[in-house]
Amino acid sequence: MGALESMPEEDVVEQFQEGPTMFENWGPTQINNLHSLYIAENHDFGITCTEFTVLLASAIPEGKVAGHRLIKTFDCEASNMVDVLEVLCGLVVSSETSSIDWKISKIFDLFDFDKTDQITYDELFICMFSCLRSMVRVVGKGIEPEDSDVEKIADEIFLKADREPTLPIKKSEFVGWVHSEVNFGQKKGQLKKITLPQLMLKFDVIEEDDAKDLEQDRLLKIASKPAKVKKKDRKKSHHAGHRKDSKKVEGVVS
Description:
The protein has 254 residues and is mostly helical. The protein contains twelve helices and four strands, in the order H-H-E-H-H-E-H-H-E-H-H-E-H-H-H-H. The chain has a two-stranded antiparallel ribbon with strand order 1-2. A two-stranded antiparallel ribbon has the order 3-4. Helix 2 (28-40) packs across helix 3 (49-59), helix 2 (28-40) runs antiparallel to helix 5 (84-94) and helix 5 packs antiparallel against helix 6. The chain is globular and about 45 Å long.
């Protein structure tokens, strides 16, 4: 579900600018901008592909080139409608520049419609359903969740919080459930090692063989990436090269 930790803002901007069509490069700034404008313009859950394209271009001007890919991913039935909250869930879970802790918090916030740091049973159901389905659509493999499966998850979260379904649960209780139930029995600090295929496997929305294939593809992608030189190192290299050139010039003059 996440990267090891949030990347520095300047690195996120650089990575975003290098590949704006790759929405996996988008971080909290881009996702929050889209979410904020979606709320400000008071859209329905589902909007047309044209409306989504305009919304995306307004919220993330440099990222509008990703609109076609996002529509293809989230309007896979070609209905000309996009569920924006599902798109936002997909952006959150697939982000390679955001921390797992930010992702858990943001997923909750997307469905905390009245901003009270608590959500109802129905809101939690929509939250988990949207989140799980977005994972399947983002990776292009898996099994879309059934209502009964999502109800079991929601029941488990409310049971863990010792809360009746008629009462809302707090954000801290949701975060606590994720840390205790979705970390494969590891310590809290090791939760950050969970990958998207592993998370999908945990919730039974992907077959084990498909999860292994996705994990292998992920590792190959990481291995094939060229090592990035930090800006400070690039500046040092530039200055070092400049000094060498200066010495050559001095040698010629003398």
